Amino acid sequence: MSIEELHLRNFRNIHDQVWNLVPALNVLEGENAQGKTNFLEAVYFLANGRSFRGTDYAGLIRFGASEARLQARWSHEGLESRLEMKLLPEAREVRFQGKTIVRLTPVQAGLRVLVFTPDSSTLFRSPPQARRRYFDHAISVQRPTYANALSRYQRILRQRNQLLECGGAPELADTFDLQWAEGALAVMRERESYLEEIRGPWQRRFRDLLGSEDALEFHWKGELGPAFEMETEDLLKALDGVRGEEKRRGRSLLGPQRDDLQVTLAGHSVKEVASQGQQRMLVIALKLAEADLFQAQSGKAPVFLLDDLGSELDARHQGLLLQILGGLKAQTLLTTAQQGAFASLSAKTFRVQEGRLFE
């Protein structure tokens, strides 16, 4: 699967640009602050409905414009797909195959876009909420039903917190406690199941990149313990132990919204022992493992976006990564500030200047 054509209008500093890509490697060269990353961001936004920079809709619209428009066309085994998005300051409108859609689930079933940027390396040094947010998104794309379970749990959690804050009736609290326990267990089990699914691919890709035999292990850690060893009654019993403190603080003190992914290398926390290079390889290996799962499920390779690759990886690891992506037959879009850095490869090269592309 590969994106064949993009039409971007009033996105960031891109005024009006048609972009024709090749199925393999596409290189965007240019000096800093010319808009190279903006092109990658547009591709990611089309597939995921959000920016990997954490920017809201208004921040994505070109200064002075009232809206932005993004269009993409791709094909797989002779079947063509078309996606259109209109961005307004407070909303987005999406049409897929000519029909208006609200969720991107039908798009993500065939178009998976994964991104690695200089900021990606901080994933396992960041606060716990960054890892929860990352994996919640990854699981939702891989398993669309998870998004519904997570949304339902978050709604129940907000309502329960409001009840604790205002001191609601006991019989109402019992109802919310049961709904909370059912929702929490569903989210925790989905998270653990996904982690088991990605365990083998992640470990294997990490070994491929580093050539290291150090054991890579990971698990979800929280106050409630492993979800597959518990039932709803166990969560309700755990609530009893913190009920007084919850009433005093006016908020829920248990649940998957407080869990963290613990990652160890050779038995030690990666936060403490992993070098900056190992941290990068750990994240890249995770992205490759996600690609493996998507390909196994859909029979299609994802699209990889690699921003400022030369600043993150040495020449040997750059070559190894691109070799792996070639083996996956993954369409790859990468940016670099170094002119001719990838000239020896079979790639389509673009020069980016002030938000415009030149072949």
Can you summarize this structure?
The chain is of the alpha/beta class and 359 residues long.
In words, what does this structure look like?
With 359 residues, the protein is α/β, with parallel strands linked by helices. The protein has a domain of 132 residues: RecF/RecN/SMC, N-terminal domain (Glutathione S-transferase Yfyf (Class Pi), Chain A, domain 2), CATH 1.20.1050. Helices cover 45% and strands 24% of the residues. It is built from eleven helices and 15 strands. The strands form three sheets. The protein has a six-stranded antiparallel beta sheet with strand order 2-1-4-5-6-7. Strand 4 and strand 5 form a beta hairpin. Helix 5 crosses helix 6.
**Strand sequence of the main sheet, in spatial order?**
2-1-4-5-6-7
Fourth CATH level, the homologous superfamily of the domain at 125-192 and 212-275: RecF/RecN/SMC, N-terminal domain
Which descriptor suits the 3D outline?
A: globular
H/E series, N to C? EEEHHEEEEHEHHHEHEEHHEHHEEE
Fraction of helical residues: 40-55%
Mean of pLDDT: 93
Radius of gyration: 22 Å
Tell me the number of helical segments per DSSP (H or I, 4 or more residues long).
Answer: 11
Number of strands: 15
The chain-level structural class is: alpha/beta
Low-confidence stretches: none
The CATH topology annotation of the domain at 125-192 and 212-275 reads as Glutathione S-transferase Yfyf (Class Pi), Chain A, domain 2
Termini, distance in Å? 23 Å
The CATH architecture term of the domain at 125-192 and 212-275 is Up-down Bundle
Report strand %. 15-25%
Note the main sheet: 6 strands, antiparallel
The first-level CATH class name of the domain at 125-192 and 212-275: Mainly Alpha
